[in-house]
C-alpha cells in the first residue's frame, strides 16, 4: 500500500547543502507495522515528513495506495513525539480528537461519538472534557493516538511517539499501539531510535544508515504473539534480533548466522 | 496573626498603602510642613473627588471621554488585528512596510495634534483618529509577535490531517495568537485613555475630562478640582486595566495555565 522508490532529499544547496536521504526504496504491505530505526540525525524524520506530504522531497517518489503523494494525503494521520505542542491547548481533549474529522464531512454528533469511542480505545473514557495540559505526558500522547485512531487513516505514521515519556509509560503505550493496530486494518510506520522498541513493536524492522540515509537492513520479526513486555523481551529470538539491529545501527556488518532471513 | 493574613491579600495590602500615603499627605498639610495654601489638604481633595461623583457636569464629561475611548479602542482592534494578520502571514509585505512602521511608531501622537487640528474640523473625529493612531501600535506589534510565536508543529499537525493554509490560519494561528492580541488591547486601552484626555486638554472641545479640567482651571480652588479629577482619571484607568486582566485570565486560562507550568 506504500511504495517508496529512490527517495532522496537535500536541504539547501551549494557547499552547505545537507543530503538527508540518499535513495530509499521501501515497500510496506497493507496491515503491516514497520519500524524504521536508525542513528539520531540520520534523516528518519525527513523520511516520515516526505511520506506525510509535509515536505516535498528533492527526488524520487512516494506512492500511497496507488496515487503519488504530492500534498498531504487524506487517508493518513501522524502522531508526533512532542504531544504537548501537537495538541491544541485551547481545546478540550474531545475537541482535539474530533477536529480532524471535519475533513471527513461528519456532522457534530458523529464527530463527538467518534471522538469518545477513540478515547475509550486508548483508555481515556471520561477525560474528554479536560484540557490537554491538565493531563500527564503519557495521557496526552494517548490523546494524540486517539486523535489519529478516530480519523481511521489507512496509514498511521508515528514519529518517535514514545520518546518523551518515562519508561513505564513507554511500555504501556507500546502495548496500546499493538492492541489498537488491528482495529481498522491500519498500516503503521513507526520511527524510533530505540532498538528494543523497534523489535518489540514491529512486524518488520528497517534499519537506516547515517545521513545520507540508506536502508542497510530489513529484518522480519517472527516472534510468538501476543507480545508481552516480559516474556517477549527474554525470548532468544528477541535477543538475537535486537543484537542484529544494534549491529546494523552501529554500522557493523551483520553476522552470517543471524536471526535475519 | 490576623494582620499578617490581611497583608497576604494583594488588593487589601495595596489599599493599605494608599491609606498610608493619604495619612502622610494629610499630616504634612496639618503640621504646616507644606502649607495648605500651596498644596491642598489630602482630605479636601478626597472630599472634592467624592462630590465630583455626583456632579452631573463632570459625569457627562466622563461619559464623553469613555465613549471616545471605547470607540477608539474598538476601531483600533478592527484595524490593527487584521493588519497584523496580513503583515504576519505575508513576510514580503512586512519587509516592505517595516521601515515605515518603525519610523511612524516613535512619533508621539500628541505631536500630531497641530496636524490633526489642520486636518479635522470636528474635534471628536480628531480625538478618535489620534486615539486609534496611538493605540494601534501595541495591538499591531503584539499580533505580529503572537503570530511569530505560533508553534510550527501545531500548524504541521493540522496540515498532516489534510487541512489547507486558510484552515490552519483560522484554527491554529488565530486562537494561538489571541492571548497576545488581548495583552496588546489592554496596553492600548491605557494609551487610549491618556490620549483621549490629553487631546481634550490640548485641543479643547465641547466635552470630556480634559475639557472639564480646562473649565475648572479658572475657579479659585482650581488645584483641588484638578487633583480630584486626576484621581478619577487614575481610578478609571485602574478599573479598566483590572477588568482586562480579569477577562484575559478567564478567557485564556489555557495560555496562563500552560506558561505557568513551563
From TrEMBL, chain A:
Family annotation (CDD domains) = ABC_NrtD_SsuB_transporters
**One Pfam family name from the record?**
ABC_tran
Alphabetically list the UniProt keywords: ATP-binding, Nucleotide-binding, Transport
Any one GO MF term held by the record is: ATP binding
PROSITE patterns xrefs:
ABC_TRANSPORTER_1, ABC_TRANSPORTER_2
Q: Which organism is it from?
A: Streptosporangium minutum
- Spell out the Gene3D superfamilies in the cross-references: P-loop containing nucleotide triphosphate hydrolases
Q: Please indicate which superkingdom the organism of origin belongs to.
A: Bacteria
Upper lineage: Bacteria, Bacillati, Actinomycetota, Actinomycetes, Streptosporangiales
What is the name of the protein in this document?
ABC transporter
Per UniProt, residues of the ABC transporter domain are: 2-235
UniProtKB/TrEMBL annotation, chain B:
The alphabetical list of record keywords is: Cell membrane, Membrane, Transmembrane, Transmembrane helix, Transport
Q: Does the keyword Membrane apply?
A: yes
Which family is this sequence assigned to? Belongs to the binding-protein-dependent transport system permease family.
Report the locations given in the UniProt record. Cell membrane
Per the UniProt entry, what are the Gene Ontology biological process annotations, in alphabetical order? transmembrane transport
Q: What Pfam families does this protein's entry cite?
A: BPD_transp_1
Q: Looking at the UniProt record for this protein, which Gene Ontology cellular component terms does it annotate, in alphabetical order?
A: plasma membrane
Domain of life assignment = Bacteria
Residue stretches making up the ABC transmembrane type-1 domain: 62-244
Protein's organism: Streptosporangium minutum
Segments traversing the membrane = 68-91, 103-120, 126-147, 180-203, 223-246
> Membrane topology per the record?
Multi-pass membrane protein
| Name recorded for this polypeptide | ABC transporter permease
